[in-house]
């Protein structure tokens, strides 16, 4: 019986349910296929990718989407995207397909391609903003002409085994499911048309699949305590510590050091925590009706600039944010009865780019929050966040017993009384 319980627990931990994010319970990437017309040997479809994740985006070098054909389909042409490999098309004479692979992989086109290769919401290098930060930039689409396929709703076979890299691992895609056909409005919004057939694929993210170690950590400090609580040692793993470099190293001046690698391997500044990103939360001031926090994000990776970065924090007083000074801010309310989570992100053209490690590799802001006198306290680490996410990755916090503590006023008071008593006793002895 004990063995059965442990086996069940093991399966629960490693199951797709591990992708559930309590701060974004409905977050996913939905891929929608709309067949717009039939062709003599197949169909023309519009494929639309919607990022419904509130604070997790897809950055450079962008997404790549793969699947397996159910039969022997080929891709005749594509607009707005391209297959990474053509495959063996030797059996075709004259008109050669764009891709003949049984399991194609498709990527977005780069900005600036000729107009006749563009499609609506394409050509962004695979970058997808998060839904919470910019819904208009959280969509990517392309058109694909499929041949050697069915030519009606009854003969078309849905692709299977979908995979999504964004740009690394972490996403798990479910099977394609036929859904009611998508309805479209014409440009004058006076007529509705609809797809001939539609199916959806839903992909969810799991940090366990993306990386075995955290990719960021959090440090704390406060005005009422001289201690600075650093990130835990080896918070992001120390396997690559021999490859890190000191910030003043001559290696940094070599050409190509800051060039990203195809395997996305980071080049980190040597630190005790070995994290690419550190978030520092400083309890700065305590007013009568308000209190103030300073947040600083530091990049220790010499090969990565972070565009569209997001920072999510969970703290009970985020329901009373009065002002955020140099970040944009949006409350996240995954559960209508609880408002304790907020998303911070950079202001457009000001600090929306977090530069690589170095003198410019940090961004910072201050947050002013109004006190709820029924709950506000600085005791027992209340002033520090419960969870912190950077770019959708949960950061490792210091152990709770190390948080900056309030001065022990009772101890100081008793010490002062003892000193006064000793002074009085000394006076009495001298008088005697």
Sketch the major β-sheet.
7 strands, antiparallel
Number of strands: 26
Low-confidence stretches: 1-17, 409-419, 422-426
Helical content band: under 10%
- CATH class descriptor name of the largest domain: Mainly Beta
Mass-distribution shape = globular
Kindly, what is the distance between the CA atoms of the first and last residues, rounded to a whole number of angstroms? 81 Å
Name the CATH architecture of the largest domain: Sandwich
* DSSP summary: helix tally: 3
The overall average pLDDT, rounded, is 88
- Looking at how many chains there are and whether they match, the oligomeric state comes to single chain
- Counting helices, strands and paired strands, the structural category is mainly beta
Radius of gyration: 28 Å
Strand content: 25-35%
SSE order in H/E notation?
HEEEEEEEEEEEEEHEEEEEEEEEEEEEH
- CATH topology term of the largest domain: Immunoglobulin-like
Number of individual domains: 2
In short:
It is a lipid-anchor; GPI-anchor. The chain is mainly beta and 432 residues long.
What do you see in this structure?
Residues 215-404 form the COBRA C-terminal domain. Residues 1-19 form the signal peptide. Belongs to the COBRA family. This is COBRA-like protein. There is one protein chain. The strands form 6 sheets. Strands 1, 2, 4, 7, 9, 10 and 13 form a 7-stranded antiparallel β-sheet that branches. A 6-stranded mixed β-sheet has the order 15-14-16-17-24-20, with no helix packed on it. The protein has helices spanning 2-14, 207-210, 409-431, and strands at residues 29-39, 42-51, 64-68, 74-79, 81-83, 105-108, 139-147, 160-165, 171-173, 177-179, 183-185, 192-194, 197-205, 216-222, 225-229, 277-286, 290-299, 306-307, 310-314, 321-324, 328-332, 341-345, 353-354, 362-370, 387-390, 393-394. The protein has 432 residues and is mostly beta strands. The longest helix is centred in the last third of the chain and has 23 residues, at 409-431. The protein has 2 domains: 17-209, Immunoglobulin-like; 212-406, Immunoglobulin-like (Sandwich), CATH 2.60.40.290. The termini are far apart.
């Amino acid at each position: 019986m004990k063995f059965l319980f442990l086996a069940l627990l093991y399966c629960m931990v490693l199951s797709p349910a591990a992708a559930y994010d309590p701060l974004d319970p409905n977050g996913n990437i939905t891929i929608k296929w709309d067949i717009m017309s039939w062709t003599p040997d197949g169909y023309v479809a519009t494929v639309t990718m919607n990022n419904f994740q509130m604070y997790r985006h897809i950055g450079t070098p962008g997404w790549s989407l793969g699947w397996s054909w159910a039969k022997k389909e080929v891709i005749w042409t594509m607009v707005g995207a391209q297959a990474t490999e053509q495959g063996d098309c030797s059996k075709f004479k004259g008109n050669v397909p764009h891709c003949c692979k049984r399991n194609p992989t498709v990527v977005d086109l780069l900005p600036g391609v000729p107009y006749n290769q563009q499609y609506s919401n394409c050509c962004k290098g695979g970058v997808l903003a998060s839904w919470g930060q910019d819904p208009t930039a959280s969509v990517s689409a392309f058109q694909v002409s499929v041949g050697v396929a069915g030519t009606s709703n009854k003969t078309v076979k849905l692709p299977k085994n979908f995979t999504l890299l964004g740009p690394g691992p972490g996403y798990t895609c479910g099977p394609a499911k036929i859904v009611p056909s998508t309805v479209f409005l014409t440009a004058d919004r006076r007529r509705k048309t609809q797809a001939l057939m539609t199916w959806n694929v839903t992909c969810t993210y799991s940090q366990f699949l993306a990386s075995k170690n955290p990719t960021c950590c959090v440090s704390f400090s406060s005005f009422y305590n001289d201690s600075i609580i650093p990130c835990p040692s080896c918070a992001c793993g120390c396997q690559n510590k021999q490859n890190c470099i000191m910030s003043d190293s001559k290696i940094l001046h070599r050409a190509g050091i800051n060039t990203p690698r195809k395997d996305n391997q980071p080049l980190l500044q040597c630190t005790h925590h070995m994290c690419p990103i550190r978030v520092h939360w400083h309890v700065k001031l305590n007013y009568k009706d308000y209190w103030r926090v300073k947040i600083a994000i530091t990049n220790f990776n010499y090969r990565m600039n972070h565009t569209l970065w997001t920072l999510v924090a969970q703290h009970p007083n985020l329901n009373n944010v009065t002002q955020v000074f140099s970040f944009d801010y949006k409350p996240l309310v995954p559960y209508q009865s609880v408002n304790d989570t907020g998303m911070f992100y950079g202001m457009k053209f000001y600090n929306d780019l977090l530069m690589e490690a170095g003198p410019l590799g940090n961004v910072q802001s201050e947050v002013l929050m109004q006190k709820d006198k029924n709950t506000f306290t600085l005791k027992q680490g209340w002033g520090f966040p419960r969870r912190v996410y950077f770019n959708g990755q949960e950061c490792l916090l210091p152990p709770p017993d190390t948080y900056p503590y309030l001065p022990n006023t009772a101890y100081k008071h008793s010490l002062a009384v003892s000193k006064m008593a000793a002074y009085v006793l000394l006076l009495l002895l001298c008088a005697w």
